Amino acid sequence: MRLSTLRLLVLGASLLPAAAARAEAPAPGGDEKETEVVVTGTRTPEQSQRSTVRVDVVTREEAERRGATNVAEAIAGQPGVQINPAAYGDIGNPSAIQIQGLDRQRVLILEDGERVIGDVGGAIDLSRMPLSDVARVEVVAGPMSSLYGTSAIGGVVNVVTGQPLAPGFSGRARLEGRSRRGVIAQGNASWRGERAWATLDGNFFRTDGVSLLEDSVDLAMPSRLQGMLGLRVGGKLGRRMRLQGRMRWIHDASEGRQSQVVPGLGTYRIDLPQRTDRFTLHLVELVELGRGSSLRLALGQQWAFDTTRKDRFESPLDESRDRRASLSSLEATGTFADGRRTWVVGMRAEVEKLSQSLTKVELVGGDVQSRTADELVPVTLGSVAGYAQLGWRLLDSLTLLAGGRAEMHLRYGGVAVPRLALAYQPTENVTVRASVGRGFRAPAAKEIGFAFDHGALGYRVLGNPDLGPETSWGTSGDVSFKSRAGLLLRGSVFANWIDGLIDIDIRPAASQGGVDDYTYRNIGRARTFGAQIDGAVTLSRVLRAEAGYSYLWTRDDENLRPLEGRPPHTVVTALRAELPLRIELVLRYRMVTDAFLDEGLRTPGFQTIDARIARPVVGGFRAYAGVLNALGVQKDPGRLGDQRPVQGRTLYLGLTADLPAEEP
Fold first, then answer.
1. What gap in Å lies between CA 528 and CA 526, rounded to an integer?
2. What is the maximum alpha-carbon separation in the chain?
3. Alpha-carbon torsion (82, 87, 90, 95), positive or negative
4. Which of 503, 527, 622, 635 is the most exposed, fewest CB within 10 Å of its CB?
5. What SS3 class is residue 531?
6. Would you say 82 and 567 are in contact if contact means Cβ atoms under 8 Å apart?
7. Cβ neighbours, 10 Å, residue 24
């Protein structure tokens, strides 16, 4: 069959998605926060200290000082952020993020502005996102649905890639050994000419599993192997036009293990292998219109394939789940500068497809039979959205930000979300911000089309195609002070009200033949409130200290109790010092208090200390060594509700090389 040229162009473009951030590459990691350029809060480049919406930034350099190898580890120490895989043991311990007491599908994860797919039980596993091609991670707390749509109720995490700044050829490499036979190899090779650039990225990571019980085959954390290959390119097509593209493949394989006692037959070992592949293609065209105005066109395509198995040792009675997901997107955003006013106007269309099947090998009438059934009937979710935002500098010291988004979904109709923010800077050193906005979360495919049949046990869990979106109102305010002497102080408060939370209704929707049918409904209501104080001080050219405290209060208004697994108090501190012999020392401390799980049950609190030393050795090479969780805090499998870290103490030793340095 012959395709027209136009159809070929559309087809090819649809395979290359959209979202590389349009900000200029930020300055190298350091302490001069006023030079950091952020984009996530308003979709326009702003200096972080003067931005209308507060945006917290973790650069690649800072992530490495924290001993991080992936996005989860990079931002785990941020004030106001909780990342604790042990809290999600029921869905495989993913490194999911919690912001303002909200988690899973209520926090939006982006890569260069594009929504990430491939969740695990509704949670994006940030440990599956390596740092090889990451320049910085931007975190915005509070509802951001007016700009980014569904899931941006608790906040947004935007993983931003960079580009090489040094002309000619350059490269960067990291080689590290860790406890539990851990090996990390990361690197990229770049070339930059006058009108074009290209970077090839690679990542390899492996580690043994963790068993918490002596003489037991059970693994609390599976062994893991991860690989990544990526290509980033960019170039000028004319005086006013630039093109950027990104292609990436991430492969993640894990080998879990558990035991099962079968009465009369003994104990069976069950292997739990999982294989995940995620492919991403992005293409962005940037057109400078002059006088600070621009147009951004983005196309995107993602595929996620996941297979999990239960392989009973020396038994044919196994089962396997296969999940398939894809996301196609098209987005156009115009930024128009008009004196003191800056308009952002855009539209986005996307189509997401999901399916899940279960294959079980069972003993039927004395014969071994294999049966495959859809747990999630193939679902197509489509949406079209339009959004607009006005940034108006009313006075030299006062900026108003007003915006909104209207979104139409194939499944449940439309939703509209407004947003209003103010930023006041009475002096060069003081910034005061306040905002109020509405957020929403569209029903997930599983909640719409799930078919979990346990009729043999007397029940089934079915999806509900008539679900509506979860909605929220959120408000926040913060004050920051930054002195020329190197002192930074910040304080903030927030509150959220969430309605229509989607959950399984414990009342059967129907009963037939002794089998009860349960389904998802919009039945929940919740509130979260919190405050945060943090600061940093540069005591001299060789010493910097940071500290932060976060308070969180939550309420499940449907069941009249706190939300589960939300620690009310968190303290983080850090110290960075330049010692003699050009040695850099980094110390980090984190305290998390106990949290409500159920009536009469709380998960225990814990404290961790991380330490790292680094020193240049020759040329662009730098050696380092460190320890994560030096106190060895670890989950006790015999203690009900224990959500302390599974890994325990981790030692590492490594070497980095910049030839010359590729700056983000």
1. 7
2. 82
3. positive
4. 503
5. strand
6. yes
7. 10
Cβ contacts of 532 within 8 Å, gap of 6 or more: 79, 80, 490, 491, 492, 493, 548, 549, 550, 551
Model confidence pLDDT, tens digit, residues 534-580: 999 998 889 999 999 999 999 999 999 999 999 999 999 999 999 99
Buried b (16+ CB within 10 A) or exposed e, 274-298: bebbbbbbbbbbbeeeeeeebbbbb
What gap in Å lies between CA 602 and CA 152, rounded to an integer?
28
Interatomic CA distance for residues 93 and 81, integer angstroms: 17
Say which DSSP state 145 is in: H
* Percent of the chain at pLDDT exceeding 90: 67
Q: pTM of this prediction?
A: 0.91
3-state class (DSSP) for residue 14: helix
Instruction: Give the number of other Cβ atoms within 10 Å of residue 64's Cβ.
Output: 23
Q: Where are the beta strands (DSSP E) in 396-514?
A: 398-409, 413-427, 430-441, 451-454, 459-462, 470-482, 487-504, 510-512
| CB-based contacts of 52, cutoff 8 Å, min separation 6 | 41, 42, 46, 391, 399, 401, 421, 422, 423, 433
What does the alpha-carbon distance between residue 276 and residue 161 come to, in Å, rounded to a whole number? 22
Contacts of 176 (CB under 8 A, 6+ apart): 69, 182, 183, 184, 185, 652, 653, 654, 655
Q: List CB contacts of 19: < 8 A, sequence separation 6 or more.
A: 110, 111, 112, 113, 114, 282, 284, 298, 300, 331
Question: Token digits for 29?
Answer: 């990691």
